[in-house]
Amino acid sequence: MKRIRKGSLNESIISALEKTAEGLVSFEDFVYHPYKYMGGHDIAPQRRPALLKSIQRLRMKGLVDKEIIEGKVILKLTSVGNDYLGIEREWDGKYRIVIWDIPENKRKIRDLFRRRLKEWKFINWQRSVWVSKKNVTGKLRKLVSDLGIEKWIAIVESEDASLEDIIFHDRIK
Q: Which CATH code, of 1.20.1260, 3.30.300, 3.30.2310, 3.30.70, is assigned to 95-171?
């Protein structure tokens, strides 16, 4: 996913949603009273169309979603939005292990896949074996499917406690 420019309206919106309770806020309140959510900074009325366009772009990227609760439109930060911001959830006790052998003639896809693993905070245990405590299995399987590389990748979830010492403690730099 393309990075959001630091200090941009998009970054302000997802940061503001992250700071709200449960990552939810009334759309109307957010648009007409953004200063409540954006560190006291208001948006001039003529900038409201830009705010609406930014929200639309964030929804298209899957970072923000809308929900209708009791007739009100509510904006909420999605799990992808949380991941984008790097918000850590409580660990569920499972390690995600990715074992892959993508052929040389698929180098661009292999490089893209490796970059994504790094973005998702996987640790490189061996050349083509990566491990993480983050619960990104669903996103990982979708990425593998979207890239069409299923036959070269194995994704394993394990609760084996020995992985902690083998992978995480000896990798501290």
A: 3.30.70
